């Protein structure tokens, strides 16, 4: 999950001249084939300044021209801050071309600034607690006529709100963990017959995914794909033992000749490396045609990172930005690297250790079995293993931060930031954005990943 901090225009005329800051966390939504097809945006609404209630009577007269938000009440200003954040280019980068689902309050829904959001890129989720009256129905109908799409959110069983809003919803999101199991077959059958797309949320195990899939659900939200039990539903792009052998060799500062000999044993790895070396910016103006030249052009550091992330790549011909496990691994690793750079006296070695901690923190999703045994095979250092297994040290703290980001656990992020004595929630959000954008670019040249396919 990536978070995005968006800073809005200063509210002039307020007693403390405060700025509203909204943060967003993304959670992956997968299709029936297990590929990314969207993200839910979890909003951390900005707190309105306490001084708003004490704003002077002539605040509007003192507001700068071009700052219309200064005339809004606190709830409307929060809504405007959220909408403004959703229009930022940084958010589009973090979505990697996928549509965004997000909860809309009445204030957001009735603010005409919502029309700035592209109808083909956003899905408006109607929460179960929203007040449904004639005005709301009229607004939904108006927006529906402008091609905006709606989702009924957090459905556990039909009620009056559900019945009133169902005709206008394209998607029905059912809380799979909380909905009565006996009700699900009939409910899903009726909704499918009505032409609704069904999204199961809270799908965190392969068993729950299979159950929801068997009932006909079309979309799935949860981290079932990153669990060790999911091993049988995935294959990697190269033999696992070959990738492990290469990683072990790379850990010992090998010569070009040693790397060449190891790679020649694995034609799939050679093919990937040749593609990587011939990407723009690496081939140094000419096409790389030999394995030795490819190793030299790429460099051992990039080969190591490429191999680490290749562990998570789906063996099918899947675009990088659609592969959920690879996206999660790459985003977590990059976040760890960015976060350690904020720590005092952190250098290149610490950044490399942070990246390794992130990328191998759920390697059991690929190999299955004991996480501790796999980490031992990878010959990772004790601090990295302690961080992954026990959340110890600075690396363990940062790993806890990125896990909280993936869950949208804002209170936990604040506690961990306080423990770090260095990070703030806003900085963490910005790093999450940068990490998500880094992971989502499929055609990198100078840095990052290449498209991984057979």
UniProtKB/TrEMBL annotation:
Keywords: Hydrolase. The keyword Hydrolase applies. Residues 236-426 form the HDOD domain. It comes from the Bacteria. Gene3D superfamilies: EAL domain, Hypothetical protein af1432. Residues 50-63 have a biased composition (Low complexity). It is an enzyme of class 3 (hydrolase). Its EC number is 3.1.4.52. The keyword Hydrolase applies. Residues 50-74 are annotated as: Disordered. GO terms for molecular function: cyclic-guanylate-specific phosphodiesterase activity. InterPro entries: dGMP_Pdiesterase_EAL/HD-GYP, EAL_dom, EAL_sf, HDOD, RNase_Y/CdgJ. This is Cyclic di-GMP phosphodiesterase CdgJ. The gene is cdgJ_1.
